[in-house]
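Notes to self, Fumarate hydratase C-terminal domain-containing protein:
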Amino acid sequence: MAIEINTPISEVAAVSLQVGDTVLITGYILCGRDAVLPKVVRLIEESKSNTLGYELKGSVFFHTAVSPAGVGPTSSNKLEIESSIEPLSKAGVKLHLGKGQIHKETIKALNINNAVYAVIPPVTALLGDKTTEQTLIAFPELGMEALYRLKVNRYPAIIAAAHGRSIYE
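result:
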């Protein structure tokens, strides 16, 4: 049975998620990948993340671009993406969505910051039916790799890393 998660995700909800849990995510999530994540991390490092107009605390970050064809996960272990997971988690992101195995150091960083990583099936058509709103948030010059906010209804995912453990081990 899937666990229903609503955004923003509380500290208590994040603690309760375990490796292997199937979740259904409802609410607003952020989307970004290779081009935009380093820019968001830079804003965090400069204490300017409030200029995004979106609260990172309790948020979900989906490793994807937003295009007319829809959204689908990209590999989370790309350098620009995986290196953003720790600073985003420190800034309050509770759930990172993507695909693929992440490194043990990243899993440890998730644990330290009470955040989790979930894999989402690469099924663009399914996700399109579960996306009810799409808004460009920042960095429009990056086109489909800009920072977007989506409103989603019951996005399916599987918790792949939580509390220092991973399904890949």
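- Residues 14 and 114 are 6 Å apart (CA to CA).
- The chain has a mean pLDDT of 95.
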